[in-house]
Amino acid sequence: MTPHTSPDSTTWFEDNRKNWDDRAAVHRASGYGIPELIEDSEAIPSTLAPDVDRLGDLRGAAVIHLQCHLGTDTVGLSRLGASRVVGVDLSGASIAHAREIAEACAADIEYVEANVYDARSAVEGSFDLVYTSIGVLCWLPDIDAWARVVASLVSPGGRFFIRDDHPMFMAVGEDVSDGLRIDQPYFQLVSPLTWEDEDSYIEAAAEAPKIVHTRNHQWNHSLGEIVTALVSAGLVIDVLEEVPYSAWAPWPELMVEDEGRGYRLRDRPERLPLQFVIEAHRPE
Ligand SMILES: C[S@@+](CC[C@H](N)C(=O)[O-])C[C@H]1O[C@@H](n2cnc3c(N)ncnc32)[C@H](O)[C@@H]1O
Questions:
Q1: Using CA atoms, how far apart are residues 12 and 3, in angstroms rounded to an integer?
Q2: Verdict on whether the full-model pTM lies above 0.85
């Protein structure tokens, strides 16, 4: 499947773009850690902070952040010393906010409005680090095509890093009144799960605009599909870690927050991985 040439996928991406344009306005109006990032020139977003040690010294590195949304983590990557930082996102509204936020943070970042599947042609050069994180793969219909784009952006000897929601976490349904149940696909399907969401994953400020374009389309990808796609695209996997913490709490009644680590299941968190991390490199 080539997702951006099928008639269905044009509609899927268009619906998702409109939904993310609306969410961008809600997130911007609701804080999203942005005032703190602007006020403190050394602040690193809480979503990036757990990975600062793994990412290591980025001084002088060329870094691309795929699906960068408002660019909060992109600013963080810039603050880790990267010399060229590029952020890519499908949502024009996200990119517009990201540009304003980068300017307010005095961060020199190139932002590109593009579908991640078109990132190779939309961006020049290759990168020492290709970075993407938290809430990204569920918007993509074809994990193999995505992995080929990722690999094409990594310089020989360069690295790829992803932290995202674990596909087992994504397979559990929204209704947990009867406990955790596997209710949604674990494996990638051609057809998406289509949702109508009036809310996003953060609490909206009272003055925030409403989400008008509620329809959005999502896919799950098994851990095996993700790993195999990256290996088939030519990357060597160095780390695959499964994590019992999440950046968000879809089931507040079942979850607690641990300072600095995110949300975990209150009862026996060892039952379910909530995130995974993959570190990979492209051989010289
Ligand atoms: C959950 S957000 C990522 C959030 C980010 N980790 C953060 O901390 O703000 C997902 C982002 O993926 C973008 N997106 C969705 N589908 C995309 C696609 N096909 N190509 C590029 N970006 C896409 C959305 O516009 C949105 O900004």
A1: 10
A2: yes
